[in-house]
Amino acid sequence: MAAASDKWLLEVRELHLAYGEHEVVHGLSFSLERGSIGCLLGPSGCGKTTVLRCIAGFEAVQEGEIRLNGKVVSRPGANLPPEKRRIGMVFQDYALFPHMTVGDNVAYGLAIRKIPRAERTTRVTDALRMVRLEGYEGRRPAQLSGGQRQRVALARALVNRPRVLLLDEPLGALDLKLRQEMQIELKAIQDEVGITFIYVTHDQEEALTMSDRIAVMSNGRVEQVGPPKEVYEEPSTAYVADFLGVSNLMDAKAAGATEGGCRVTLGEFALVAGQGEASTVGDCKVTIRPERVDLEPAGGGGQNAIPAIVERVVYVGSTLQVIVHLASGQTIQAWTPNDGDHDPHRSGDAVTARFPGEALRVLPLGEVSEEGFAAAAAKPA
Fold it and tell me: Helix or strand or coil: residue 164?
């Protein structure tokens, strides 16, 4: 945690929250700089939305504190009301009033605050321009597509000029193609308005696309945090490797450090894992992303090579997902580009699976990492 609070727009320190005997959030800490997008990524029930509700002021803090612009807004026994935090929130179901026009929906919060009509009109026009909905003021939500309704909800939050915008699974109700389009759209809007976003999702691709920093959560704790590339390429636990994207996780035995990394064995085959904890000894996990596995003609030797048999090939457009069974007993995936000319692998083919040392990572068994978000936030992206 940085000593100077003014370095961060938002700080969450040692947050705990329980419902009866069920602890939902356990000592969670993170900090976000102004103008960035932070993502809380994890499965349903891991505490993501609860953390968002605490930041917004809808849930009282039982232990720990939340600071905004260096000022405490939540701590045990003291909770600044939501309307005084200048925090906006966009929900998955959008929560638009069906009987109101788009303009009236966007202006609703301003009207409640008794902002003069002329200023309301100007701010609504500006907000709709930001989300590319100029001229839609007179329409009703039922006359809009799902993506347009999502943008109206975003405009309604932006019109209040929040310091922080919280987005709780905002694209979850959209189909895949529209969701992918809106990911790009939301990122562009955030770049334009410069507001700090905190984005909650269980969709790994969405987190990688949207975020400047990702905090991977499990059971109310932060497992790992960092820039998307770092968390994807350098998972610190088997949970992170397995949850974020697709990863080949294999049981192995480690024999400690050697030149180039850690010596590991899969069955009778010796490998060198160039990533992870080189000093690991004993039972461990090794992981490698499918796109980093090289499939070569059978008979290839050398370091980090294991004979294998192709079990099946799955066509997914630009990529072929090749399922192979290793001679060491594991079944893994290898992803190869689809060049469109021919299928390089067929079921039953004998191949050699090669694991580049710089892509193979050793993960010791035992306690998962509880790295604080704030400490990782200080690392360069």
Answer: strand
